[in-house]
Design brief:
single chain; Serine Threonine Protein Phosphatase 5, Tetratricopeptide repeat; mainly alpha; 0% strand; 10 helices
Length: 180
């Protein structure tokens, strides 16, 4: 046993190895392998929030909503600030058009990782669905900036939404001035 395994415990080291293998498989879009590895990690450390959140995320990609929901819930029971679990729950609520719930989960995810552009992007869309286009525009500008920092092409998609929000805000302003 290595010194690290001795200090952390063999099960922790083995679980982290499975987690790393799960991430690699996920990045290669081998979802079944990713699921098997994360389930092995969870067998070793069942209350590790990050592992549960990853299991939920894998199931969300495979559209197994009830399993994803249960895994995200287990992650949040272990750690209410687990970013991926909050983001995943936000995505589930977004799909169900439960805007207020989605906003709450996305805000909790941002509390854990404030510069996460995917979360900012979806929070902007939620605010738009709630009719809060000024807030939507601000969140979308933040998402665009963070995507651009990462040289991510999704910044262009953000710009298209920003133009749409600007147009909607101008229309709202025009309607408001006419009603005076």
């Amino acid at each position: 046993m290595t010194k690290l395994a001795g200090r952390l415990g063999a099960s922790r080291v083995a679980a982290d190895e499975h987690y790393a293998q799960s991430l690699s498989a996920y990045q290669a879009r081998r979802l079944r392998d990713a699921q098997e590895h994360i389930e092995s990690a969870i067998e070793l450390l069942p209350h590790h929030a990050e592992y549960q959140a990853m299991l939920g995320w894998i199931h969300l990609q495979g559209d197994a909503t009830p399993v994803a929901q249960a895994a995200f819930d287990a992650a949040l029971d272990a750690n209410p600030y687990e970013m991926l679990a909050n983001y995943g729950k936000g995505m589930l609520a977004y799909r169900e058009k439960q805007w207020e719930s989605a906003a709450g989960y996305f805000l909790d995810a941002l509390a854990a990782q404030p510069e996460r552009p995917e979360t900012q992007f979806y929070l902007a869309l939620v605010r738009h669905r709630q009719g809060e286009n000024a807030h939507a525009e601000r969140w979308m500008r933040a998402a665009k900036a963070n995507f651009a920092k990462a040289n991510d092409d999704r910044a262009e998609r953000c710009q298209a939404w920003i133009r749409e929000f600007e147009k909607l805000l101008k229309e709202e302003s025009t309607r408001a001035s006419r009603s005076l």
